[in-house]
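Issue: ligand-bound run for fe (ii) ion - logging full I/O for the record.

Environment: standard queue, default settings, no custom constraints.

Inputs:
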Amino acid sequence: MVFHKCNCRIGPSVLASDMSCLASETQRVVDAGADYVHLDVMDGHFVPNITMGAPVIKCLRKHSKAFFDLHMMVSKPEQWVDDMADAGGDQFTFHLESTADPMALIRQIRAKNMKVGVAIKPNTPAESVEYLVPHVDMVLVMTVEPGFGGQKFMAHMMPKVEHLRTKFPEMDIEVDGGVGVGATIDACAKAGANMIVAGSSVYNAADPAAVIRQLRESVERYGNGKEPTA
Ligand SMILES: O=C(CO)[C@H](O)[C@H](O)COP(=O)(O)O
Ligand SMILES: [Fe+2]
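Outputs:
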C-alpha cells in the first residue's frame, strides 16, 4: 500500500449517462455526492469514437456549477484550448501521446486559467510523464484503452500508479476506466490513486450515491494513510 495525504475526489464520467439529458444526468451525480464531473471529449481520430465538443460543454455549463475535468482524447489538443476555456472547462487533461510540445501546451492551458492534467495511455510508461509533474496539477493513468466506456479494468496499470505515488506523494493521481466498487477501486486505492473516474459503475447503479460513497471509503481506507479496519 502506498499512503498519501491527497484529497479523495470522485468524478463520474457522463459518457455512461443518457447523454440526451446531459444537464439532468450531470445534476443526478452531483446530488449523489460527486466531487467533480469528468467529460470525455473524443475526436474520432486520436480514438475510434466521437463524443462531444465545446458547443455541448458550453450548453452544459449553463446548467451546472460543477468542476469540469475535460479528458481530451483528441489529436490536436492545442486547437481546442481556447474553445474549451470559453465553454467553461475547469481542467484540460491532454494526452501525452497527442502532442509534440507538452510544455507549450501547458503554457497555453495556464494562460486560459484552466488547471492542467496529463494523461497516459496503457502502453505509455509512467517514467515518460515524470518530467512534467512539476508543471501540471494531475496525472491521469488510463486503466483502459481510451475510446469507450464500459471496458474491463486493466489491473496491470497499478504498478504505474504505485510508481508515481511513491515518487510524488502529494500529486493528484487520477485513474479512469473500468473502476467500480470492489476489487478495482481497492486496487486503485492501494496503489495510491486519489481521483477516481467512474462511468458505468455510477450511472448504471440503482443507488449512485452508495457507489460514490463506497468508492470514497476505499480511497480513504487504503490510500489516505489509515490502516485498513477490516
Ligand atoms: O475515458 C474514458 C474512456 O476512454 C472514460 O472516462 C472511461 O471509460 C469511464 O467509463 P467506465 O467507468 O464506464 O469505464
Ligand atoms: Fe475519461
